[in-house]
Structures are given as C-alpha cells and as structure tokens.
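We now fix the convention by which a protein and its fold are recorded. Think of the row as the fold of the chain written in a discrete alphabet. Here is one such record, which you should read through line by line.
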Amino acid sequence: MAKQDLIGGSIWEEYSQKVQELMNNPKNQGELTEEDAKRLGGELIVADFGAESCGDAVRLYWIVDPKTDKILDAKFKSFGCGTAIASSDTMVELCKGKTVDEAVKITNIDVEKAMRDTPETPAVPPQKMHCSVMAYDVIKKAASLYKGVDMESFEEEIIVCECARVSLGTIREVIKLNDLKTVEEITDYTKAGAFCKSCIKPGGHEEREYYLVDILADVRKEMEEEKLKETVEKQASGEEVSFNDMTLVQKIKAIDSVIDESVRQYLIMDGGNMEVLDVKQNGQYTDVYIRYLGACSGCASSTTGTLYAIESVLKEKLDPNIRVLPI
C-alpha cells in the first residue's frame, strides 16, 4: 500500500525522514525477559502506560543494574499508530546507558527533537504530536516500579502542557514577567500549546484541569488587582501616580476627566460630542478608541484637526505615547 493511501501526501511530508524510517523499522521493538536480566546481571522492570487521547499504549522494558541504577538495556512494545511506534523507539534509545534518575529527566520534547532531521523542523505534524507524548509518563512508571514509589513523586510541579512539559508555575511566571496578554504570546515564550493544542482551551483531545485561556485570564486579573492595590497605596500616601502605573479602569477615568476639562465643551459648542469606547495597550502605546457624536460625526475635521487636538491634549496631560483612533 502506498504512503498516500495511509496518510495524505501533504501530511506525510510533515514527518521527518527519521520518523518515517522508525515507523516501519524500529530498532528497539521487542521484549526483555528474566533470562536477559540474569545474563546482564540486572533487574527486569516492565512498565505499561496508555494515552486516553488516542487509545495508544506502550510497554517499556528496562534491565537496571541495582548497584549503579544504570539502564543496561531497554526495549518496548507499542500498541498504536506509527508516530507512537517511532517516538517509543526513540525514547528507548535515549534511556539506554543512563541511570534511572537521568532517564526520568527525559521529556517528550527531548524525544521529538531527537526524531528531527534538522534542529529547526518539527519531526511530526502538530495534529499528531499527542501520539508521541507517552514517553515521559511511561519512564516515570518504570522508575516508580524500580524505586518502589508513586509516579507523582517524580513530578515536582503541575504540568499544563504535556507535549512541551511546561508547568503551571512557569506559565504564570512568564505571563507576569513579560506582561503577556494573549495565548499566542504564551506559546511564543514557552512552547506551551504549540503542538497538539489540547491545553489551550476546552474541546481538545481530553478534558484537562488547566487550560491556557483560563490561566491567562486568572493571572491577568491578579495583575490588575495587584496594580490597583499599589496605586491605591500610592494615592493614600500622597504619592503621584503616573498614567502607566494606573489600572485600565483608572486610565479610562483619567482620559474622560481630561476630555471633560479640555475638549468636550468645545465640541458641544459646535453641536457635537464624543465618547471613549475602549482603551488598549499596544506595546509602548496606549490606543484610545473614540466615537464622535452629533455634528462631529460628519465633520471633515474630525479625522484631521479635531483629532489632532484631542490627541495633543491627552499626550500633554497624561502620556506622550497615547494614540487616539476614531471608529
């Protein structure tokens, strides 16, 4: 059967040559027995793990030297698609020669990168990344059996993105440190959500406790509350609060106040008016979206002289990086 009969031609081209070869000719597929362990002077470990997202399952065999904790040999059996077979084979190859503690540090991204033909080109298409995320979990299972502990003992933090192994703490910290405002920015900074995308929002491969959209909303809310608290404390102590230090609500109030004091009366005299519709931070700029009312809505100067005058007043009294945009 031709490749195109199994996978669309364009999708097939998104798989690295290494993945294509391992799909059909895995190097480490098979099983290890107690006889093999005895021959090598090690302990046989057999771990099973299944992925609910696609029904794949993998069985990992280790022979571990009890004196050094070194993995002397490893093999796997995979009950799943070609991507699962290729990633399982690569995972086993990465385990060989490492100690159990070193193997536990192998991530799904390590496996995916090891299957790439070139460092900058992903080994599998994003929609198939979820088929190659069992490596970390089955390694944890094997390590827990060898050490006689729970799998969770190897997990120091809550993992939100299993593909990139990005923790909840890391995502929250990155949002705060870099003032991120979109999920796309989170992905750019951390790679969370870049692959199977099931961690971005509900409706992915399987139900999750944490989603990037919710984390972003929660952290942004916390940031606004912290900023408001700091502003209130500054005002209570008599300290002047700069426009950039204000919360969004405070910025809108400040803009409205300046417009009431310096702009609105002149518009009303000409039979018009204006209202502030929204305020958005766009990099270093604060974009103020306005709508003209009455005679101003049809006035030719509303997009030239009047607009320039409004923007000039706001820049002078509040912040030089304010831009006024009529809608």
Summary: Residues 212-236 form the longest helix (25 residues). DSSP finds 14 helices and eight strands in the chain. The first strand starts at residue 43 and ends at 50. The beta strands are 43-50, 57-64, 71-79, 159-161, 166-167, 272-282, 285-294, 322-326.
